[in-house]
């Protein structure tokens, strides 16, 4: 078997392994938690009772509204990872550990322990909240509420999230892309056919006009194009490396340092959505007899998706989170130090602190336009169509970015085979004593 055929076979195995593990994830997402009335749960959410849980349900692939063993999804691990990333910017000891390989392993271990703790807290709270829910006909969602149900649900949901984390690590090791990203991508993608058939059903029943349906499809197509274009856009910073001669070849010279336009990626909308979901979640813990209940319900209704206050607060949070998260992704101080160590500099800018100030200036300008892009993509489509869709906003950003990275990984895999073949064909000898 030639090298090229071996590479193709390995790529096929990686694709097959990825799809196999994602299938296992989807099968596990159908297993419900013990003690839940499935029919009453479906009736409750069909009446729109789960509006406040749309973010969690989207990232769990519908497992939340089925109260599956994977109802928490991978979000607790993502939350703890973000917390440790933020702590690395504040606590110098954690920052030093993140830069060291052994210290990074310890942080990964702490992140998993913190994820288990967060899963237990969220699982217990979810069980307690669902005990108070009833279907529109008055049937309770939980057959036998009590402490035993809460503890078993807490352990089950924590185990489900840890199983997802293990599954993601296997996909990362033997698959095509980061396993956590692919799990989130799959959870969003499996909900899209239901959204499509729902729109078609509304159109057939006359509840949705053909004009509105055409506008919605056009906005989705335009948003998809804009997101794909912006996600691949870079601001190149010219960098001059010192020239040196090695084996009669000249290395160095003028190069570019790429800086993504959307530096923060999809994290600013996710963080903003999480903060907006907090008041709605807290509203469920306020007793109905409390004097604060009317005020809490008013705030809750004002912060529902589609409301004016929700859009304004969401836009401000995205704007703030973009400037907050971009420096974490692109560390200007570290980049300036790396350039100085490699005898490189930005033309017209002195190495060291001046280079850091220049990079901060460019990063702030790029982040400003990136934040405007995120606001437009996440808010404008729902404002135009007048409805909330899974094809818009955060979900669309995640799907496009993950799909582009998967395609890039496949292309890199194939190009590496071509480079390896071309390199081996240029050996010093062509006979039995050839170098390669």
TrEMBL record:
Spans traversing the lipid bilayer: 66-90, 110-127, 147-167, 179-197, 209-230, 270-288, 308-328, 362-384, 396-416
Pfam families documented for this protein: SecY
GO CC term, one of those recorded: plasma membrane
Superkingdom classification of source: Bacteria
Record membrane topology: Multi-pass membrane protein
Predominant location category: membrane
Key word Transmembrane present: yes
InterPro entries: SecY, SecY/SEC61-alpha, SecY_dom_sf
Keywords: Cell membrane, Membrane, Protein transport, Translocation, Transmembrane, Transmembrane helix, Transport
Biological process per Gene Ontology, one example term: protein targeting
Subcellular location(s) per record: Cell membrane; Membrane
Family: Belongs to the SecY/SEC61-alpha family.
PANTHER family tied to this protein: SECY/SEC61-ALPHA FAMILY MEMBER
NCBIfam families: 3a0501s007
Subunit structure comment from the entry: Component of the Sec protein translocase complex. Heterotrimer consisting of SecY, SecE and SecG subunits. The heterotrimers can form oligomers, although 1 heterotrimer is thought to be able to translocate proteins. Interacts with the ribosome. Interacts with SecDF, and other proteins may be involved. Interacts with SecA.
Purpose of the protein: The central subunit of the protein translocation channel SecYEG. Consists of two halves formed by TMs 1-5 and 6-10. These two domains form a lateral gate at the front which open onto the bilayer between TMs 2 and 7, and are clamped together by SecE at the back. The channel is closed by both a pore ring composed of hydrophobic SecY resides and a short helix (helix 2A) on the extracellular side of the membrane which forms a plug. The plug probably moves laterally to allow the channel to open. The ring and the pore may move independently.
Designated name of the protein: Protein translocase subunit SecY
UniProt organism field: Bacteriovorax stolpii (Bdellovibrio stolpii)
Gene: secY
């Amino acid at each position: 078997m030639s090298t090229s055929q071996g590479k193709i076979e390995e790529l096929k195995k990686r694709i097959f392994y990825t799809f196999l593990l994602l299938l296992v994830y989807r099968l596990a997402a159908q297993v419900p938690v013990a003690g839940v009335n499935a029919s009453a749960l479906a009736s409750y959410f069909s009446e729109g009772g789960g509006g406040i849980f749309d973010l969690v349900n989207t990232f769990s692939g519908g497992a939340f509204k089925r109260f599956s063993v994977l109802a928490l999804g991978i979000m607790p691990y993502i939350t703890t990872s973000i917390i440790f990333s933020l702590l690395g910017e504040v606590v110098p000891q954690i920052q030093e550990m993140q830069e060291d390989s052994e210290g990074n392993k310890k942080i990964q271990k702490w992140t998993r322990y913190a994820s288990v703790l967060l899963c237990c807290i969220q699982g217990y709270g979810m069980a307690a909240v669902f005990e108070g829910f009833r279907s529109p006909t008055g049937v309770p969602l939980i057959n036998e509420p009590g402490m035993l149900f809460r503890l078993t649900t807490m352990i089950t949901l924590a185990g489900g999230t840890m199983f997802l984390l293990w599954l993601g690590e296997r996909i990362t090791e033997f698959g095509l892309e980061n396993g956590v990203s692919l799990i989130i991508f799959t959870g969003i993608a499996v909900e899209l056919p239901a959204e499509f058939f729902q729109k078609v059903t509304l159109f057939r029943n006359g509840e949705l006009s053909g004009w509105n349906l055409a506008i919605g499809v056009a906005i989705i197509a335009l948003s998809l194009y804009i997101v794909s274009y912006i996600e691949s856009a870079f601001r190149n910073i010219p960098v001059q490396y010192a020239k040196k001669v090695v084996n009669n070849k000249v290395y160095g010279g003028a190069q570019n340092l790429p800086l993504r336009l959307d530096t923060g990626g999809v994290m600013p909308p996710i963080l903003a959505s999480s903060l907006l979901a907090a008041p709605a979640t807290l509203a469920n813990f306020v007793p109905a007899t409390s004097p604060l209940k009317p005020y809490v319900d008013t705030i809750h209704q004002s912060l529902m998706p589609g409301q004016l206050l929700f859009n304004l607060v969401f836009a401000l949070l995205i704007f703030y989170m973009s400037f907050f998260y971009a420096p974490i992704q692109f560390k200007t101080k570290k980049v300036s130090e790396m350039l100085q160590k490699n005898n490189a500099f930005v033309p017209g800018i002195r190495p060291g602190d001046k280079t850091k100030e220049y990079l901060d200036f460019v990063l702030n300008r790029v982040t400003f336009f990136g934040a405007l892009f995120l606001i437009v993509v996440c808010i404008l489509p729902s404002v135009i169509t007048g409805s909330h869709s899974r094809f818009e906003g955060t979900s669309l950003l995640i799907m496009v970015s993950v799909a582009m990275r998967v395609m890039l990984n496949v292309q890199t895999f194939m190009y590496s085979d071509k480079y390896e073949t071309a390199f081996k064909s240029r050996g010093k000898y062509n006979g039995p004593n050839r170098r390669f």
